[in-house]
Amino acid sequence: MRTGTFFELVAPTGRPALGMKFDSRSKLLFVAGGPSGTGTVYDGTSGAQAAFYRFGVPSPTGPPTTFINDAIVTREAAYFTDSVLPVLYRVELGPRGEPSATFDVIPLPPVVFGAVGSCGPGARANGIAATPNGDYLFVGNSSAGAVYRVDTATFTAVPVDLGGVRLCNADGLLLDGKTLYVVQNADNRIAVVNLAGDYVSGEVTRYITEPFTSNPATKVPTTVAEFGSSLYVVTAGFAPPAPDFVARVSK
Lesser CB count within 10 Å: N end or C end of the chain? Predict the structure, then answer.
């Protein structure tokens, strides 16, 4: 039985990779800037910087005051999550996917995304995904162990009812049809959720645990992407010499 193939991901800083999304329409790459509080857009062909955003103000000392964690691109906008502040950042996109020079700050429920949840301290808003038409976003809350559906018309956030199952350490998200893959970083697994037609409920049908459980080199999966019948997952390691890898697993 195949348990996964992994590749080393070169990370000069030694830090785990943060979320990034490529827009095939504009050939632009949208990159979350973590504790810098920034988002950067690069030309996917030349590598040149196409846009830059100062979303949050980092703290020089003490606890972090912002952490731009992940990004998603829809036809109308790019969205970035902040794991410290209860907000989303929205960058409007033009007809050919060209990003606006400005951004909007979208409030999320502070009682959920501004406080420590039942899973303990850690990131709040983390991974983000979107329906193909861009009508809904899905935002994972690592500390609460929950995923929220956000309506992009009203920006109302409602929890996806998983029948009492908590997804602690929810990190990267990937929506494939009505299947939502939720990476649980410190749990070393990916939860596979079958969503209902309205996206407000779902059932965790199984967990993908390999090679994250058995291979010391591929611990702590973080972000996830897909190609064909495979998922590609960046792992953080957090063990000397702490290399990052990209692990390939079957859906």
Answer: N
Contact 142, 124 (CB under 8 A): yes
Q: How far is CA 71 from CA 46, 62, 128, 171, 204, in A?
A: 21, 26, 6, 12, 24
Q: Of the candidates 38, 28, 47, 118, which has an alpha carbon nearest to the alpha carbon of residue 80?
A: 38
Choose among 55, 99, 47: nearest CA to 73.
99
pTM assigned to the model: 0.91
Write down the residue that tokens 């964690």 correspond to.
69
Q: What is the mean pLDDT of the chain?
A: 89
* CB-CB neighbours of 92 under 10 Å: 14
Asked if 68 and 57 count as a contact pair (C-beta separation under 8 A), the reply is no
The residues near 47 (Cβ < 8 Å, ≥ 6 apart) are none
| 120-154 per-position pLDDT tens digit | 887 899 999 999 999 999 999 999 999 999 999 99
d(CA 221, CA 208): 11
Based on its alpha-carbon atoms, the radius of gyration of the chain, rounded to whole angstroms, reads 17
Q: The tokens of 165 are what? A: 């199952």
- If pLDDT is split at 50, 70 and 90, which confidence band does 15 have? very low
Angle at 65 between CA 59 and CA 68, to 5 degrees: 110
Domains and CATH numbers, the chain: 18-213 (2.130.10.10)
Kindly state the tokens that stand for 168. Answer: 């602690």
State which amino acid sits at residue 82: D
Most confident of 76-80, 119-123, 221-225: 76-80
* Contact in structure between 54 and 105 (CB atoms under 8 Å): no
CA end-to-end distance (rounded Å), the chain:
14
Collapsing DSSP to helix, strand or coil, 113 comes out as helix
